[in-house]
Every structure is written in C-alpha cells, then in structure tokens.
Amino acid sequence: MKEKNGALCGVVLAAGAGSRLGYPNKLGGKPMVRAAGRPLVDHALIKLAAAGLSDVALVVNPANRLVIEAHVADGRAFGLRVTYVVQHEPLGIAHALSLCEDFAAGRHVLLLLVDNLFQADIRRAVAAYTVQAQMDTDQAEIFLVRVPNPQDYGVAVLAGENIAALVEKPSSFISDLAVIGLYLYPPEAFGLIPALSPSARGELEITDLNSLFLQKGRLSYQKLSGWWLDVGTEERLAQAERLLAEQGLL
C-alpha cells in the first residue's frame, strides 16, 4: 500500500464496552454499535482514511478483539493498513495511547475515540499539522466544537487566541468550546504519559496529558464547524442517526 502520510499515523481507541447500547463485548462492544447502518469503527476508519492517513492502530480489548478483527481485517477495505493493539485493562485513554508507542515508531499520532462522530472534514487541519510534523514540531493539538451543554464535557477556556485552561465538566458556564475526542500528538507524548497519576477512577486521563502540554506552552487548537456527538447513550445515538440522515449517510 502506498504511504500517503509518512509523518503521521492514526490510533483509534476501540476498547470500550457497549453494554449501555446493547452491544456487550461478545458482540464487539461499542465499536460495533451501528450508526447510519455501519459500525462506529467504520466511521472512525473512514474519517482517518479521508484525512490522508494510511497506517492505523486499533486499540481493542481482549474480549472484543476477535469480533472487530473479523470485521475490519487488515483494513484494506478502508484503504488503510490496520494493526491491532490490546488494552488488557480499562486504564484510561492516555494508557491506551501509551500502548501504541512501538506502533508509532517516532511518528506523530492522530488519536480518535471510536464513539465520537462529527461533521467536519479534517483533511486541511491534518495537512497543516503534518507540515509542522515534518519540521519536527513538539506541539500537541486539540479540536474544539461549540456545544449547547458544555457542563457535560471537558472544555477549553480561551484567553484571546490562546488556551488559558482545560476544565472537566464545569459546574458554571466558563466556555462552550468542548474538547472532542480527536487529538494530535508529537512523539514526545509517549515520554510524558509515565508522569501522569491515575485519576480518582483509576485511569490515566487524556485531559491530564493535554494539561501537561498546556503547562509547557505546547498545546494549540483548531475549531471545527458543524455538529459533534459523543455517542455514549441511546439518546445520543438516535441523535446521530438523525444528523447522519440529514447528511445523506443513512
């Protein structure tokens, strides 16, 4: 397969259980939940392929690996080369990313959470970051979308054109810019993850990794237009179906 973007590889976090959505691990878990007639893992891989990537790691769990691997196979049907990485315990998004260090092999990483669906075309954003990556940038980048219910998400507080703070589920209004489950990281991210401490729920949080980059003055952002959904409930899944139908994808 021809390498489309050698400076950047993709990681899709697909280890989540989907029991709340009727897809336990034996059915493939959350990655196999269908939206617009296709599993969420399909939507994620299609997004990354459209963004110009060709080499992607799928982080799965031991119980859903066989189902997902039988469906995705080597990724060729998506125009991708897919590698499988197993997260044996649910120790957080940053932990899942750390397992992909050997796969990344010194490349920058585009990380996408499988339950995040969004309207925006990210090709230009990824291309712009790739230019920086080829110049050995040490910047991480997050993606922001305006939402009507910021209290449900982690948000970025801006001061002018810069990020002033990252706040998880603010109790009062401080920003309506949600940090979505799409991130760009330099290779240095893997060296920072061991410095993270587990949160109260025993996980290595991706917000803490982003905060480290922010403290170092190395966190940038891009705002995305259009809708975005974290498809973690039946209500949001139904909303995603409606929005995808409006795009002609249902």
TrEMBL record:
Keywords: Magnesium, Metal-binding, Nucleotidyltransferase, Transferase. The keyword Zinc-finger does not apply. It comes from the Bacteria. InterPro entries: G1P_thy_trans_s, NTP_transferase_dom, Nucleotide-diphossugar_trans. Belongs to the glucose-1-phosphate thymidylyltransferase family. It comes from Candidatus Avidehalobacter gallistercoris. PANTHER family: GLUCOSE-1-PHOSPHATE THYMIDYLYLTRANSFERASE, GLUCOSE-1-PHOSPHATE THYMIDYLYLTRANSFERASE 1. One of its GO terms (molecular function) is metal ion binding. Residues 10-245 form the Nucleotidyl transferase domain. This is Glucose-1-phosphate thymidylyltransferase. Its EC number is 2.7.7.24. Its cofactor is Mg(2+). The keyword Cytoplasm does not apply. It catalyses: dTTP + alpha-D-glucose 1-phosphate + H(+) = dTDP-alpha-D-glucose + diphosphate.
